Amino acid sequence: MTIEQKIEELNRRREEISLGGGQERIDRQHKAGFLTARERINALLDQDSFQEMGLFAEHRCTNFGMEGKKMPADGVVTGAGSIEGRLVHLASQDFTVSGGSAGEMHSVKIVQMMQACLKTGSPFILINDSGGARIQEGIDSLSGYGRIFYNNVMLSGVVPQISLICGPCAGGAAYSPALTDFIIQTRGARMFITGPSVIKSVTGEDVTAEELGGPNAQMCISGVVHFIAENDLDAMAICKRLLSFLPSNNLEDPPQFEAEEVIMPDKGLNSIVPLNPKQSYDVRDVILHVVDRGDFMEVQEFFAQNIVIGFARLQGRTVGVVANQPAVMAGVLDINASDKAARFIRFCNAFNIPIITFVDVPGFLPGVEQEHGGIIRHGAKLLFAYSAATVPKLTVILRKSYGGAYIAMCSKDLDADRVVCWPGAEIAVMGAEGAVEIIFRNEIKNAADPAARHQELVREYQESFSTPYAAASRFQIDDIIEPAETRRYLAMALDIVHSKREFRPQKKHGLIPL
Ligand code: HXC
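That is the input. Now the predicted structure with hexanoyl-coenzyme A docked in place:
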């Protein structure tokens, strides 16, 4: 063979393999509304930035008719590329090749990308579209997945890991996404261990994002998936936006964007929160007023909606936002809200992202169901995560903040760097009505006019405790500010504490009550 012939052969092979399972299967994929593995990579990465690795990798299985069976690239496209100029490594499962099933070589390819992430400090992205462990390869398939799981854990807290679920993600295979930091799932995708997709309603119908805002939200999403995408292209757009908030690894700071020269007071903030603690409002309105350009990327929007978490920027710097949501269950803390916030806080801490906490919380949700579900164990995670976090922690108490929930929402005692209140804030062991009923029960009962005495005592309690001044007099509060000044205050505080360094006792790891 001449060199020209060899080059021709190379090009022919390359082209053949790049077609994956062939045109007919590609057409089937398109007809179902999906992109192919390679099209997804092209949609995600900067143009012409992809360097593929392992195009010619093949399986070596001879069982169950596999001998000599062509499995182009062994059903997964792997390599490196850039997103907005920043390096990532990724793997994209090819459903047109034996249902994207993962055999020995398929997993070796994925694991090599993960290890390259560790060496180069780059995020890892896995685009899932697979029938799971390749049945014909038996233990080799299981072992392959086992190594993916192990490496997910090695990467955890070192580089961000993002899973996109763009087709089936069945059985034990779903545990790789579950071990990563964020899961983005398209509407057409299916992710499950033994049962139906999490984006079907409990009755099996498809549900829209609007319907997910309803009471079925927690059933539908269950906290497994962080973002729902309309389709593959939307999933790629969500992934890119998410990465724009994150550093490439734990030794870097997140990318910094432009800051405003002067921050003007925002009078709009003075009227969002009603003074009456029983009246609700959407805390996202407060967040949108405070962060840069009203740009807030909410995470797990449909799970535990009584707490809002997400990424934003303040003067060009990424911040993680945690906020009680008075519009849902009065913003009470429950099992799911504690888990949701605690995990997010730990992510922020691992990746050098300061945390801003907006507090308006009546307490922990009372009731047998919560007690039996272990609210003590779950609520403790929130206390643990905030206490263990050494990134800048800034807390704004918007309105009420009672009892254990006051502490759990990053009080000064948990080492917040700033706690600042709005003038309508109330900090107390409990709300006035409940407090008076407990401490003055006899006095009210014996009063000539019990109802009037009750009202009077409530007023007295409110005057002494239901203001921020008692807490400020103990220096549990750094300042009481006009709401309009919140953005300016936080930006200045972030500037001051940005370079904070904290040293904790050496240990293998703390023992968060999982
Ligand atoms: C080998 C597989 C496969 C698998 C699909 N295929 N899954 N081959 N191992 N796990 C092949 C099919 O044989 C078929 O090949 C092609 O992929 C397309 O599959 P279809 O069934 O035609 O497609 P569709 O109707 O869209 O259904 C997709 C599917 C279904 C829902 C994923 O194939 C399915 O249920 N597969 C099995 C899922 C599963 O139980 N996997 C094991 C999970 S356990 P041909 O050549 O006929 O086109 C697991 C453990 C992980 O993953 C280990 C963790 C510890």
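The first strand starts at residue 51 and ends at 52.
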